[in-house]
Design brief:
The longest helix is centred in the last third of the chain and has 25 residues. A seven-stranded mixed β-sheet has the order 9-8-7-6-10-11-12, sandwiched between helices. Strands 1-2-4-3-5 form a five-stranded mixed β-sheet. It has 459 residues and is of the alpha/beta class. Helix content is 47%, strand content 16%. The protein has 16 helices and twelve strands. Helix 3 crosses helix 16, helix 6 packs across helix 14 and helix 14 packs antiparallel against helix 15. The structure holds nicotinamide-adenine-dinucleotide (NAD).
Length: 459
């Protein structure tokens, strides 16, 4: 398991070892052995599948593209996790993301294990026909290890419902007569997808912020101001004031998060900046998010990046460079693009006191510690971006039952699940010195470890 996740899992295990209420019946040498087993299980994936997909390009060249499916742990249910199409995909990255999925599912009580997939391509460099071939080949090469009760992929960076539809169709033709609706989630509605799945991650990301900074804060103001730690002080300092908000990344996650923030009536916020792979757009008075969203939909997902584009979009903004979004003088920064965006080299320039991780691992371990020491609130990926996998679980259930829920019902159940998780974590977070990420990991590792112990996997 790579860097940050591995280090936090080990810290969680150390804390649990000292906790007399965790597995009180396991003591002495047996306890040490059990913890060694746990560390070994959590730090390594169950299986690593790698293939080179042979693709005939439209220009006649034949290429071999590296692809992965990594199955981290299935103690809680079938493996589950997205497939990423990006040129920076590597075995280490996919393994780390698969481990994060195991823990995310444990934290939110989703009955799935953790898996992840990746293909080393920049999808923008391939035609639609070539991408279709890549999706089909991915399923052909990994078909033995995928399936509704084995391992259920979903979209991730660079993939969406189009790719899931293609993949499910390939799975269906390879396994005629077998159930197939639950083989992939994040499909289009006409292909058995769930209403609300596409928006689920972005909505969930915003919900975690709104729930903490509005509902929870209001219900617990007295308690928070009495025994408050540095994080509670930061939360209270931002209560009931107009908040300026910036969002990095304007894809599946970032654009929906920005729209939720734009529409939100319980927090008096305004989205002053959004960014993507090309630019940051800034308007101190607030950006026209519906206009920018419409522009991005019509322009392969890209924000306006020139004055002419801006005029065409109807939005008014200053065009800044891509990284500017990270350093603006705002209260809240949503990170919904890539890993490692805030790191040891730039953390001192980040001014936002509340950071929400829509992307996976956008803040490095080093930056995380520096920000925590200043009382900056970070709502971590494991907590904030689970909306996608939660609604994927609803999609999987609907596929099994071939009964479909309304959009309203999906969001009601999504928020109820995320609220339950938040309520089990936030009192501890605002009551002790551990950052939220560590609190979430201790919670997830405790749940998973108890299950592993009861399944007899620690001896
Ligand atoms: P996406 O491909 O739809 O969008 C990515 C966005 O980031 C685009 O706007 C792109 O222009 C922008 N971007 C790319 N490089 C950038 C850079 N260097 N600087 C600033 N912006 C850049 O991807 P997505 O589905 O929105 O996923 C974003 C992140 O959220 C990923 O880390 C992904 O793993 C994570 N995530 C996604 C989901 C989901 O359901 N889609 C679920 C959980 C986590």
């Amino acid at each position: 398991m790579a860097s940050q996740t591995g280090a936090i899992v080990q810290q969680s295990l150390n804390a649990m070892m000292e906790d007399a209420t965790f597995l009180p019946q396991v003591q002495g040498q047996r306890r040490e052995q059990a913890f060694q087993s746990l560390a070994a299980i959590l730090s390594t994936p169950n299986k690593v599948h790698k293939a080179f997909l042979r693709i005939a390009l439209e220009n006649g060249n034949v290429v071999r593209i590296p692809a992965y499916r990594i199955q981290h742990n299935d103690a809680l249910g079938p493996y589950k996790g997205g497939i990423r199409f990006h040129e920076s995909v590597s075995e280490d990255e996919v393994t780390n993301l698969a481990a994060l999925m195991t823990l995310k599912n444990a934290l939110h009580e989703v009955p799935f294990g953790g898996g992840k997939g990746g293909v080393v391509i920049n999808p923008r460099s391939y035609s639609e026909k070539e991408l279709y071939q890549i999706c089909k080949k991915y399923v052909q090469y990994f078909t033995d290890v995928l399936g509704p009760d084995k391992d259920i992929p979903a979209p991730d960076m660079g993939t969406g419902e189009r790719e899931m539809d293609w993949m499910m169709a390939e799975y269906k033709s390879i396994h005629p007569g077998s159930p197939y609706l639950g083989s992939f989630t994040g499909k289009s509605i006409v292909n058995g997808g769930s209403l609300g799945r596409k928006e689920a991650t972005g909505k969930g990301v915003y919900f975690t912020f709104r729930y903490m900074m509005h509902d929870f804060l209001h219900d617990n103001k007295d308690w928070l101001s009495r025994g408050s730690n540095a994080f509670a002080a930061t939360a209270l300092a931002h209560a009931d004031m107009p908040l300026t908000i910036a969002v990095q990344g304007f894809g599946n996650v970032g654009s929906v998060t920005a729209m939720e923030a734009y529409k939100c009536t319980s927090i008096r916020g305004r989205v002053v900046a959004v960014s993507d792979r090309n630019v940051t757009l800034y308007n101190e008075g607030g950006l026209d998010i519906p206009a920018l969203t419409a522009f991005a939909i019509a322009n392969r997902g890209d924000l306006p990046s020139s004055e002419a584009d801006l005029q065409a979009s109807g939005a008014r903004a200053q065009i800044l460079d891509r990284e500017a979004v990270l350093y603006l003088n705002v209260n809240v920064l949503f990170l919904a693009a890539l890993e490692d965006q805030i790191h040891g080299g730039n953390v001192q320039d980040v001014k936002a006191r509340i950071i929400v991780e829509g992307a996976n691992a956008p803040v490095t371990g080093e930056a995380d510690e520096i920000l925590a020491s200043k009382g900056t609130i970070i709502i971590p990926d494991i907590l904030a971006n689970a909306g996608g996998v939660i609604v994927s679980y609803f999609e999987w259930l609907q596929g099994k039952e071939t009964q479909f829920y309304s959009e309203e019902e999906i969001y009601r159940q999504l928020y109820a699940k995320m609220q339950k998780t938040m309520n089990s974590i936030l009192p501890a977070y605002f009551g002790d010195p551990l950052p939220l990420r560590q609190n979430c990991f201790v919670h997830a590792v405790t749940k998973l470890s108890t299950v592993l112990y009861r399944q007899g996997k620690l001896y």
